[in-house]
Design a protein that fits this description.
elongated; three-stranded antiparallel beta sheet; alpha+beta; 2 domains; 3 helices; disordered N terminus; 26% strand; 26% helix
Amino acid sequence: MILPQRHILFIRGASMALTQIRCADCGGKNVAGYRTYTIQDGAHRTMYHCASCGCSFSETKHTPLAHLKTPIAVIVQVLSALTEGVGINAATRLYGVSKNSIYRWQERLSGLKKPSSCLP
């Protein structure tokens, strides 16, 4: 039996299911991971299959990160460095990415809001 995939949060040895993965097309919950694929730098991403509609999708489908080959962690590091004052030329040398890639990441992610740290 294949169990549904969930996003998991690990905090100091404890884990907590945050959300159940839903189908990127129909929104159904009958989703299971069926294979992984390797992106640049050897990082792995999971492909999912929806038993309800037959759709196959990755965890980044319909997001600003769709079709990117660079690991998400690297993108976060580069954009964080730029926010902290590292120049774009220095970032390209430090992280081994092109200026055009950085500009594309900034453009794709510019509409996202940082989650508020204040609780209501």
